[in-house]
Amino acid sequence: MNKKDEKIFNDRLAKYEDELKWLYNELYNNDEQAYSYFISMLAKFFSERSKELKEWDAKKEENPGWYTGCDMLGMLMYTNCFGKNLQGVRSHLDYIESCGVNYIHLMPLLESPKERSDGGYAVSDFRKVQPELGTMEDLANLSADCHERGISVCLDFVMNHTSEDHEWAQRARRGEKEFQDRYFFFDDWNEPDDYEETVPQVFPQTAPGNFIWCNEAGKVVMTTFYPYQWDLNYRNPTVFNDMTANMLFLCNQGVDIIRLDAVPYIWKTVGTSCRNLPQVHSLVRMMHIAARIVCPGTILLGEVVMEPSKVVPYFGTIEKPECQMLYNVTTMASTWHTVATKDVKLLKHQLGIVFNLPKQYIFLNYLRCHDDIGWGLDYEFLRQFGVEQVSHKKYLNDYLRGAMYESSSRGELYNDDPKLGDARLCGTTASLCGIEAAEYEQDMSKLDWSVKLDIMLHAFLLTQSGIPVLYSGDEIGQLNDYDYHTDPVKNADSRYLHRGDFDWESAKLRKKKGSRQERLFSAITKLVKIRKQHRVFDSAADTWIVETYNDHVLGIGRFYQNEKMIALFNFGDYDEKAFINEEGNYKNLLTRKRFDTKNVTVPAHDFLWLCMEY
Q: What's phi and psi for 519, nearest 5 deg?
């Protein structure tokens, strides 16, 4: 390390060292040797970071809020589905830019066993790309190309577990105690049975229980998710040190955003739910500090698929942040609840909670992603309207899979548990909006109806503070892919319904006037351009619920830098009136024409973006 770099590293370390040492020693019982190794590991990865990435860091440090503005738009994609491999993704960067996207999230692409991969979330080597997708050099080259275009790259980091094929697991299986100590091994079922009394099951139907018997080792192993995913033991400082090193290795390939997968699960204590324990926050805070020292251009995105009260703590505090971004899971689920019920009361309630959070808390907002839709709604709130949880989940699932006469949605159930009356839902945005059914029936009026709903939902997505993320294919209205039913590796997992290959032939139709692809692509890209032009969409804006006195119409207000916006969304099947009484010279942002904002009629499945300047 040259003297200039040494000074930069030491200055960054000095800024955080007191807190870092305190957190580390509290968690690991003053293990000075482990802490000393941790610091030397940080220095190693800083010295190995390329000149180009250090310049990229400096650019981000000059603008620490680079991810908070109104100009951010993400796209989530599977490398193999979108471009076959990493070089294929590179070849399609022009298309990505044409969507207005400046942040791509590449779904898991690290090495994992083909038929025991859990979609890439069972990693057998954190420093190798799945061979058919390319190499680490390909990933670094893609990141470099993206950076030249001002596009940030996000990658999943699966930190709760490894594949049973990982080198550590193989050596643990052979009886090496050093590597068994990196997981949770037990000589008998006594302690695992104690855990089972309080630890919920993640997949009660497809992978019941939290432990398996390992014949080779003659011991019990903890497997919270699938039997081939062995939980890591973060009570062991070697695990934390080596996993942080794996994360920093990915950062040094040019990854800007690290998605911490299943982060609430990473600390285990018998007699608890093994979710959201205080030690988890210490670990995430230390990982945040490690990134600030080695690669300050990198930020952490936490995957916390839980209710808001459990999600928000993962931001940390303003003074001591943990994750810079979190998924807005509850708004996503509440949105689809509103599509099915056509009633905005729950969505108003949920958004009201989000709007009251500090503006520094940046949510990643989305309509659909690679995963299912889980109905973790606020049933305490819904109970006052006579809504009962089990029957309501059944109603939502029946509506959104098209099992009701009045529904044109097309989805499938995931992880159906008849005993608990619980199931989650799968499907693409377009198919859930009714586009698939309309095209199958060749019903043009139904297609118009469904396309309007799809566009309205994207307008709602873009109205929220934070980073809106498109699921690749949604911009052209990609439909469900039922081919997974005939694939023996995939047919047990209905999430593959919305994980089909990107249809490049369909994408060509985005240039054909009047096609479903053109209507959606032109509408969404127009909305994205408008969003980037108006600072009122900035995450620093004041936001509030606008009372419309109509349970079918959602109203959102925004104000920032002398610009005020009223956004109205009609989730109903008929034209509805929003009983608002706003003073001022408003313009419709889509038509640029003056608009009277008193007792406004909003067409069915439509929206209004109304704006004025002071």
A: -60, -45
Alpha carbon distance 56, 147 (integer Å): 8
Q: Name the CA dihedral angle for 203, 469, 292, 120, rounded to a multiple of 10 degrees.
A: 40
Task: Give the distance between the most distant pair of CA atoms in the chain.
Answer: 75
Query: What is the helix, strand, coil percentage profile of the chain, to 5?
Result: 45, 20, 35
- The alpha-carbon radius of gyration of the chain (Å, integer) is 24
What single string gives the DSSP state of each residue in 118-149? GGGTS-SEEEEE-GGG--HHHHHHHHHHHHHT
CB 397 within 8 A of CB 387: no
Estimate to the nearest angstrom the gap between the alpha carbon of 375 and the chain centroid.
16
pLDDT tens-digit series, residues 418-431: 777 789 999 999 99
Q: How many CB atoms lie within 10 A of CB 454?
A: 26
The dihedral of CA 402, 407, 409, 415: what is its sign?
negative
For residues 130 and 124, give the distance between their C-alpha atoms in angstroms, rounded to a whole number.
10
What is the distance between the terminal CA atoms of the chain, rounded to a whole angstrom?
53
**Bridge partners (DSSP) listed for residue 219:** 214
Question: CA 447: distance to chain centroid?
Answer: 29
Residues contacting 370, CB < 8 A, separation 6+: 76, 78, 107, 119, 471, 495, 498, 499
Contact 121, 261 (CB under 8 A): yes
pLDDT digits (tens, 9 = 90+) for 122-155: 999 999 999 999 999 999 999 999 999 999 999 9
132 vs 150: CA distance, rounded Å? 27
DSSP for 454-489 reads HHHHHHHHHHSSSEEEEETTGGGTPPP-GGGGG-TT
What's the Cα-to-Cα distance from 587 to each of 270, 331, 538, 561, 597, rounded to whole Å?
59, 28, 19, 17, 9
- pLDDT band at residue 178, thresholds of 50, 70 and 90? very high
Q: Are 151 and 201 in contact (CB under 8 A)?
A: no
Return the pLDDT at 305: 86
Strands 325-327 and 362-366: parallel
Nearest to 339 by CA among 504, 573, 538: 573
Cβ atoms 170, 186 nearer than 8 A = no
d(CA 482, CA 491) in angstroms, rounded, equals 10
Per-residue CA distances from 609 to 344, 417, 573 (Å): 18, 41, 20
The two structure tokens encoding residue 53: 């990435």
Contacts 24+ apart (CB under 8 A), 353-356: 353/308, 354/308, 354/328, 354/464, 355/543, 355/544, 355/545
Beta strand segments in 314-427, E: 325-327, 362-366, 412-417, 422-426
Question: Residue 248 is which amino acid?
Answer: L
Closest by Cα among 248, 290, 361 to 15: 290
Residues tagged active-site: 261, 303
Q: What is the pLDDT of residue 518?
A: 98
